[in-house]
Design a protein that fits this description.
With about 210 residues, this protein is an alpha/beta fold. The chain contains nine helices and five strands. Helix 3 links the parallel strand 2 and strand 3. It starts with a helix and ends with a helix.
């Protein structure tokens, strides 16, 4: 990874790595594994939270444009613009017309970015079973170092599991493109998930080079 990251910089090729998935699916550990041997001057961690009041006054893509990586750099997105067709859809934070229109807008944005920059996009969906998610929630509650990760939304989202599962399946089917495909990471086993993600990223970088 260190060698490939250096070559991306040398050849001025940007790369976006997107992490989306269920709660407690292991994004943090996976991102740490991916970035551990990257040069910290050459990548940015982009945490995506709920939009602020001022951000809601603009088109929802606006807040994602500025953090796009410059030539030779890597952006690692913890969540992404796909929140529009999963979370915002599920929570009623946008209209049906808005989240349906987002599919076309996402296709256009990703295609334009790739064609104009010569870079690449790696999209990870971290999948976890409902039982394993509950097990990890219980572990967090029992560990004083991790209780901050538990929120009221966690239990509420579990109650909507089937609804979210339907939205996720539709999102994966409609946004899995040749130039920006999804890789589903089976994340009940954290080490397996980290190794699969690392192999996927290094394979993508080799193709870009």
């Amino acid at each position: 990874m260190l060698d490939l990251h250096s070559l991306l910089y040398k050849h001025a090729i940007p790369l976006i790595i997107i992490y989306d998935g269920w709660d407690a699916e292991g994004k943090g550990g996976n991102i740490t594994r991916i970035s551990r041997f990257m040069n910290p001057l050459g990548y940015d961690m982009i945490p995506i939270a709920a939009p602020s009041a001022s951000e809601k006054e603009h088109h929802y893509h606006r807040r994602f444009i500025q953090p796009l990586p410059k030539a030779g750099h890597v952006a690692i997105n913890d969540r992404s613009w796909y929140g529009r067709v999963i979370i915002e859809r599920g929570e009623g934070q946008c209209t049906k017309a808005e989240w349906q229109r987002a599919y076309r807008e996402i296709h256009e944005m990703e295609a334009e970015y790739i064609m104009s920059s010569g870079g690449g996009v790696v999209k990870f969906w971290l999948e976890i079973s409902k039982d394993e998610q509950l097990h990890r929630f219980e572990q967090r509650k029992a560990d004083p170092r991790k209780t901050y990760k538990i929120t009221d939304d966690d239990g509420r989202n579990r109650e909507k599991w089937d609804h979210y599962d339907e939205a996720i399946d539709e999102m994966l089917a409609r946004t899995n493109t040749r130039i920006a495909p999804w890789t589903v990471i089976e994340s009940d086993d954290k080490l397996y998930a980290q190794v699969k993600a690392l192999r996927t990223v290094t394979d993508c970088v080799r193709k870009l080079l």
